[in-house]
Amino acid sequence: MSYKDVSSTYKETRIITAGQGQLIVMLYDEAVKQLGFAIGLLEKNQNEKRDPARIEQISKAVMKAEEIITELMISLDFEQGGEIAKHLFSLYTWFNRELLEANITQDMERIIVVKNMLSDLRNTWDTISMNASSQPNREAVGINIAG
What we know:
The protein is an all-alpha fold.
């Protein structure tokens, strides 16, 4: 079995065995990772000659983050989540709008702002997830990962 196969199997097992809160944290982690990748490439474009292939990579990374944010939006449970779910929906909508504009204009500052806010939300969900997992039979409120 190759390293790629082992890594893929590990990731798959981690996702299958993760709790609801952990899945949310994983989504945030990937969105932050993708935006970090885009920021790194944008910095290269500022310091070196603009590379069309790099611009395409930036665009793909930002769009991947947008897709993850959209997945987080779709999974919100407005009945259980109430005002928190509504506020998160508004925030996610703003994130996607900012990332769309940032992608068009290659605006690194906008991407950094969204990345930092996503990172803060990720840390909050991680804390919630840790607290929920230490209490038996308790589910994360306001989000439904089941789709």
